[in-house]
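Weekly modeling sync, notes
Attendees: S.R. (lead), two postdocs, one rotation student

Agenda item 3: backlog of single-chain predictions. S.R. asked that every request posted to the team notebook include the full sequence so nobody has to chase files. The rotation student volunteered to paste the first one in as an example of the format we agreed on. Action items at the bottom.

Example entry:
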Amino acid sequence: MSMAELNQIGWDEFSGLSSIEKAPYFVENGRSFHALVAQQFSRPMLEELCALATCVRRTAKTREGSAFLQQQLFDKRAMLYFAQPSSRTYLSFYSACQIVGLQTINVRDSATSSEVKGESPEDSVRTFSSYADLIIMRHPAGGFAERIAWMLSNTSRPVPVVNAGSGKDQHPTQALLDIYTLARSFENSGGIDGKKVAFVGDLKRGRTVRSLAWLLTQYQGVKAYFVAPPELQIGDDILKQLDAAGMPYEISRDFAKVIPEVDAIYMTRIQDEWDVDNESSRVNTASYHFTKEHLNILGKDSVIMHPLPRRLEIDPAVDGDPRAVYWRQVRNGMWIRAALILSIFGCDGAVRDYCKEHQL
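Predicted structure, as returned to the notebook:
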């Protein structure tokens, strides 16, 4: 299967597939056309994107390099359609577009579009695609980005779609920046292979956790720890995928016990925007907060991560510790998203050649 075959399958059949089964439809010749689910990224693709992100990061350090990057896609336009509140992801993508020269047009609130007149979201995005060469979208409805990708692939002008957050199910580009952060953090200690990663907090509804947990199956010897109260523990659907991939994991309620055992701790906030009847307030999560005292039992080469925004789950007193890499994560997001955009448009080779020529 390939992206070209997305216009040869009906929506009802396609929507009934699992994420693993859908993934090949978004990739063509080893390169993503749409970027929609974590399951579409193989290890070679991840390694190539991480290497390209490093090229972009190093190239952008000079005025000459920055001008070169901005020439790559100066003739293209990106639509940033964010129908769900976002500042971090929106600005990360906006900055990534600026780095590679993409002009941007924006809709950050569906209340400002013709949806308030009764237009369907599908028709709104179809209209946006007439003005843009790339759709970057965040939407509260799970699977909506996939529907848009399928719809646009069945038009005379297919436009790539990048999923910037889809309901409670997927956040693939967050997972890409998390992988890049892990790769950078462990570049002098064997990389991601063989590492132990703890996910802590609201794992039931955390789309970043769902996407990153899958990407970790692409590495050898990785073990996951899912640390949460029972009400917020990781879903069986994710565990079944990990079982099928042969990745070991442990389910735990004892955060303090897990801290000294792992190489990376991925903290998450309570996702109460998905609450029904304010159920999150009835769950005591105080024992799942990372405190300054926990630094004493954390491995000296381990790292603390967080997709942000945070609330109480990490004490701000931890921020100054070199093992706290969540601010690096934010900046890494800009580089890996720039790399992804370059790859989608086939400009990655030119950037790699520039890096090689300038010995970056």
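Discussion: group reviewed the output briefly. The first strand starts at residue 27 and ends at 28.
Action items: rotation student to repeat for the remaining queue; S.R. to check formatting next week.
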